[in-house]
C-alpha cells in the first residue's frame, strides 16, 4: 500500500521525538566507561530505560541527594543528569551538566554528556561543539561519532550524519544504537524501506534495547503494517513496559492522523 508523504509539521515532530532519543541512545554508556566512577554513586536496581515514571522519580531523588552532597563529582553529576533526562526533565539535566562541565572542563566524558544535555533542549550547535571537543582524532570514540551524526540529522545535514554513523560502525561493527541512528536518518528523509532495513538489523544485534525496537515499530507502523508494529513495540517486555511502548507508538502515529487509517487498513488486509 502507499503511504501518505510526511507533512512538514509531522516531520518536525518525528525529528524532535526520535532523533533526540537516538542521540541519547548514542551516548548511553559513556559515563560507564569513565575512569572517574566513585563509590559515591547510588546503586540503581535496574537500567533507566526499564524504569517507569515512579521509579525514575525515586531514582532522581536518590541520586539528587548524592549530587547535593558533592556537585563537583563528575560521575554523580552525569548519573543525575541521565536520570533527569529519562524522567523528562531536560532543562534541569542541562543545568546539572553545566555545573559539572564548569568544574571538569577537560574531561572528555563530561563534555560528551554536556553535549547530550544541550541537544536534549535543542541547542544543537553548542552540542556539536561540546562533542567535538570531547573527541580525539588519534583515537576516535564511536559513541561520539554517532552522537555527532544524530546532531547533524537534527541540523538537516543527512549526508554528514550518515558519514559519521558509518565511521562509528567501522570502529564498532553492527552496534545496534548506531544502526538505529542510521535508520532514523532515513526516516527523516521519508525513505522508510531503507530505514526499516537498518532498524531490523539493529534489533537483531545483541544489546539492542527497547528504544531500538520502538524505532523499528514506528517505521513499520508508518508503512501501514499496524499489527506488526504493535507486536514489535510490545516484544520481550513486561506488561507495563509493553503498554507504554504501544501508547508511544499510537501517539507518534496520531501526529499524522494515521492511527485509525492504519488500523482499518490492517483489518482490511487480513480479511
Write the layout of secondary structure elements.
Layout: H1 8-27, H2 53-69, H3 74-86, H4 90-103, H5 108-120, H6 124-134, H7 142-154, H8 158-171, H9 176-188, H10 192-204, H11 210-222, H12 226-233, H13 239-254, H14 259-270
The count of β-strands is 0
Q: What is the helix/strand order?
A: HHHHHHHHHHHHHH
Mean pLDDT: 80
From the N-terminal CA to the C-terminal CA, the straight-line distance is 15 Å
β-sheet strand percentage:
under 5%
> pLDDT under 50 segments (min length 5)?
1-13, 19-39
Within CATH, the superfamily of the largest domain carries the name Tetratricopeptide repeat domain
General form: globular
Number of helix segments? 14
> What structural class do the secondary elements suggest?
mainly alpha
- Characterize the biggest β-sheet: none
Total tally of structural domains? 2
What is the CATH topology classification name of the largest domain?
Serine Threonine Protein Phosphatase 5, Tetratricopeptide repeat
CATH class of the largest domain: Mainly Alpha
Gyration radius, rounded: 19 Å
